[in-house]
């Protein structure tokens, strides 16, 4: 039920308005006769609409009260007035009211004006929200482009500098130095390729173009294979200890019955029915998107290895519950400073203690997107200099 504040200094008219509104299903939250009181009641009661008489008792008229109310609280105002002169209407129009009702009022006109005011106000809310969202997106786009440009500038500079040195001083540079410059170029080009790939993934996520294709997945085997693959890529610099608790594949029993009806031609009444019942065990695998899950776990595991001292083990635990899987990845690395933890999943954010460890600050924002596509949740606990634990929970679709 919509709440309406009536601001009218003639008591009889105010009571007539109340009766008309209540007959039409509205609730009159209060009736006041002064503009100053109208502002107080608007703040205290937060009505959905205000019917405001133009001429009121006290020092503040209805136009002044309406202007302050709308500027402070964005509550729509419909004027009640017995005055139709150009000067009064011009002053009232300046406050951008949502309608006018001339006194003596007609009930049908009053209710129609209120309904139009509510509709217009709702449209304005939608428009304001859309404009605010568009402004935010423009700002984010501008910031994103600026950050991407900055991230590309450093490797491009390394490539240009190394190339110029080889071109200008190639004859005087020994083979070892040439190899060093070529390695700089290769490293910078690799970094740019990885950055471009991550930027494309972020862009796909922002426009809703990430393909989500959940399918039955042998989760234990998948995690085991992924662990071995990452160990090979990181040259076993940090052993990853993988454990499983619970069973992610459930056994289900399918029961089917078949009947064999034999009819005897000579004596139809003497029909016999042979029923054969068979039971077959089937395995129900959890349903997840393998490609997205691989990206999630690869990022978290490689980060755990990257930010840990050489030789320090990384723990990777899979907990299989009734309706969800929980992945826990623990390291004893450099940890995440407390001041960085609020912004950890923001694009391009890198912690202040990473030093020269390579990265572009996009990985965790992509991980969060992919976890949420599964309807899951990601959280972490970390202390600088002690280590970090990430926990990802994903429901089985």
From TrEMBL:
Claim: Calcium is one of the keywords in the record: no
Domain of life: Bacteria
Pfam families assigned to the protein according to its UniProt record, in alphabetical order: HATPase_c, HisKA, Response_reg
Domain Histidine kinase positions: 147-397
EC number, UniProt record: 2.7.13.3
UniProt catalytic activity: ATP + protein L-histidine = ADP + protein N-phospho-L-histidine
Domain Response regulatory: 3-118
Keywords: Kinase, Phosphoprotein, Transferase, Two-component regulatory system
4-aspartylphosphate PTM sites in chain numbering: 53
Molecular functions per Gene Ontology: phosphorelay sensor kinase activity
UniProt xrefs under SMART domains: HATPase_c, HisKA, REC
SUPFAM superfamilies cross-referenced by the UniProt entry: ATPase domain of HSP90 chaperone/DNA topoisomerase II/histidine kinase, CheY-like, Homodimeric domain of signal transducing histidine kinase
PANTHER family the UniProt entry points to: HYBRID SIGNAL TRANSDUCTION HISTIDINE KINASE C, TWO-COMPONENT HISTIDINE KINASE
The protein's name in its UniProt record: histidine kinase
Native organism: Dulcicalothrix desertica PCC 7102
Lineage, uppermost ranks: Bacteria, Bacillati, Cyanobacteriota, Cyanophyceae, Nostocales
């Amino acid at each position: 039920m919509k709440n309406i504040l009536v601001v009218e200094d003639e008591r009889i008219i105010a009571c007539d308005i109340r009766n008309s509104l209540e007959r039409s299903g509205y609730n009159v939250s209060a009736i006041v006769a002064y503009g100053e009181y109208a502002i107080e009641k608007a703040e205290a009661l937060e009505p959905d609409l205000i019917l405001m008489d133009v001429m009121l008792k006290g020092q503040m008229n209805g136009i002044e009260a309406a202007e302050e109310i709308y500027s402070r609280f964005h509550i729509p105002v419909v004027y009640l007035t017995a005055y139709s002169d150009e000067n009064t209407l011009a002053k009232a129009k300046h406050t951008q009211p949502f309608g006018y009702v001339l006194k003596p009022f007609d009930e049908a006109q009053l209710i129609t004006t209120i309904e139009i005011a509510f509709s217009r106000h709702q449209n304005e809310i939608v428009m304001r929200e859309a404009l605010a969202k568009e402004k935010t997106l423009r700002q984010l786009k501008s910031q994103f482009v600026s950050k991407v440009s900055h991230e590309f500038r450093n490797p491009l500079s390394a490539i240009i500098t190394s190339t110029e040195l080889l071109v200008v001083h190639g004859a005087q540079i020994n083979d070892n130095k040439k190899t060093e410059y070529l390695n700089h170029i290769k490293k910078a080009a690799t970094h740019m390729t990885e950055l471009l790939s991550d930027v494309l993934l972020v862009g796909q996520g922002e426009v809703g173009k990430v393909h989500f294709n959940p399918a039955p997945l042998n989760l234990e085997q998948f995690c085991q294979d992924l662990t071995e693959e990452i160990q090979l890529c990181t040259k076993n610099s940090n052993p990853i200890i993988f454990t499983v608790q619970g069973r992610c594949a459930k056994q289900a029993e399918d029961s089917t019955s078949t009947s064999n009806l034999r009819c005897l031609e000579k004596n139809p009444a003497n029909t016999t029915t042979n029923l054969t019942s068979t039971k077959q065990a089937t395995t129900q695998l959890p349903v997840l998107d393998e490609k997205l899950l691989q990206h999630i776990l690869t990022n978290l595991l490689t980060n755990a290895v990257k930010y840990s001292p050489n030789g320090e083990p990384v723990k990777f635990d899979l907990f299989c519950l009734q309706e969800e899987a929980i992945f826990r990845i623990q390291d004893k690395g450099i940890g995440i400073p407390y001041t960085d933890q609020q912004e950890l999943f923001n694009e391009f954010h890198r912690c202040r203690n990473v030093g020269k460890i390579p990265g572009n600050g996009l990985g965790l924002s992509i991980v969060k997107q992919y976890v949420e596509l599964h309807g899951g949740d990601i959280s972490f606990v970390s202390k600088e200099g002690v280590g970090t634990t990430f926990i990802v929970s994903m429901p089985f679709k």
